[in-house]
Design a protein that fits this description.
By secondary structure, the protein is mostly helical. The protein has three helices and no strands. Helix 1 runs antiparallel to helix 2 and helix 1 runs parallel beside helix 3.
C-alpha cells in the first residue's frame, strides 16, 4: 500500500495526467498505484470522479 503522502501524490498525478490528455503518464500512475497495492475500488471511484468532472452534471446519469 502506498504511504500517506505518496498515496495522494499518485492519485493527484493520475487526475492531472488524465485532464492533460497525457496517456502515457496516466498509465504510469495507474500501474504505480496498482503495483503499490492500492485498493481497486478506490481507484475506480477516483476515475469516476475524474470522469464526472469532465462531463459535468449534464450527462452524469451516464456514469451509472
Amino acid at each position: 500500500m502506498l504511504s500517506g503522502e505518496e498515496h495522494y501524490n499518485c492519485i493527484s498525478a493520475l487526475h492531472k495526467s488524465i485532464r492533460g490528455s497525457d496517456d502515457n503518464a496516466a498509465i504510469y500512475y495507474l500501474a504505480r498505484m496498482i503495483e503499490g497495492g492500492e485498493d481497486p475500488l478506490f481507484i475506480a471511484r477516483r476515475l469516476i470522479v475524474c470522469a464526472s468532472e469532465d462531463i459535468g452534471n449534464v450527462a452524469l446519469i451516464q456514469l451509472f
